[in-house]
Design brief:
Blueprint: E1 2-5, E2 11-14, H1 16-92, H2 96-108, H3 136-139, E3 141-144, E4 162-168, E5 173-179, H4 181-186
Antiparallel strand pairs: 1-2, 3-4, 4-5
Helix pairs in contact: 1-2
Length: about 190
């Protein structure tokens, strides 16, 4: 037998069906909590993997940049040496026109490093989707046809009204619409 605790420490005996309903919803809360933990871990795992891949790419690109820079410096130094040697030959042969042409040729040289290009290989972003629509059995209406007014159900004594309770699964809400006694007689 299950017990429901009322206000001021008063115990009420809970019917088996009420206990089953409470059990069901408590199990659903536990399941949602477990799902939330698992999804949160999945998000963290995805983020760590994405950051790792980005960092690996950063390291690879910086290494390529450093190698390209060092190669360009070597080529620059070699070209400088070649121009200085050529200039010396032209100066010794008193060929000032060739020296001037060499200087102009030197000014036209340009050394650059590669540019950054961005690929279409973007990191796919994750997105939490809404749960699929519940089927009609889960998202339908059901009639609550209790008469006699039970004080334990917070109904005023002598209340003989009924209600239609509608559960909307997409936002997990219950709405209650009273049914008048005349409507009940026609059903």
């Amino acid at each position: 037998m299950a017990y429901r605790y009322g206000g001021y420490g008063v115990q009420n005996i809970m019917s088996p069906s009420e206990a089953e309903i409470n059990n069901f919803f408590n199990n659903q809360r536990d399941a949602l909590y477990s799902q939330q933990l698992k999804l949160s871990e999945d998000i963290d795992r995805w983020a760590n993997n994405a950051v790792r891949r980005i960092n690996e790419n950063v390291s690879r690109q910086k290494s390529l940049l450093k190698n390209q820079y060092e190669k360009q410096l070597r080529e620059l130094s070699n070209k400088q040496r070649d121009f200085i040697e050529a200039r010396l030959v032209f100066v010794q042969s008193s060929n000032l026109e060739e020296v001037q042409r060499l200087v102009e040729q030197c000014r036209s040289l340009k050394y650059t490093l590669g540019a950054l290009e961005y690929s279409d290989d973007y990191i796919p972003l994750m997105q939490l989707t809404q749960p699929k629509k519940l089927d009609e059995a889960q998202q339908g209406s059901f009639d609550v046809r209790q008469t006699g007014g039970s004080p334990s159900q917070n109904r005023p004594q002598g209340d003989t009204s009924s209600a239609v309770v509608t559960y909307t699964g997409s936002n997990n809400t219950f709405t209650t619409k009273p049914i008048s006694p005349t409507t009940m007689q026609t059903k």
